[in-house]
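If you are new to this repository, start here. Below is one unmodified record pulled from the training split, so you can see the exact layout before writing a loader.
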Amino acid sequence: MLIRVRNRCSDFNSYRAARVKSLFNAESGCNFDLEATLDIDDGEWQLGVVVGPSGSGKTSIGRQLFAAGEAAFWQPQWPAAEPVIDVIAPAGDFDAVTGALAGDDL
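And here is the target side for that same chain:
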């Protein structure tokens, strides 16, 4: 099975958004493309695990694999006009926000 993920959103240029992009050497924070060939077409598998770092497409792959699609995944309602990094604790410390998102405190 070929999975194609094409996620698009606005590319924001706020201070925090630019700082996050610089942490990951990303020129753009708005486009994500992934193609993966999964050997699952025969239906013989009973348990599967999709692993990878944050932002690698695990949830996007899951949305395409399961019939429930979007309904199977909880999604917070973020403002479309702002990047997530600016909405979380806007007056808070940048390192604390990115650390919480990255799970550094676990």
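Two things worth knowing about this chain: Residues 2-75 form one domain. The beta strands are 2-8, 31-37.
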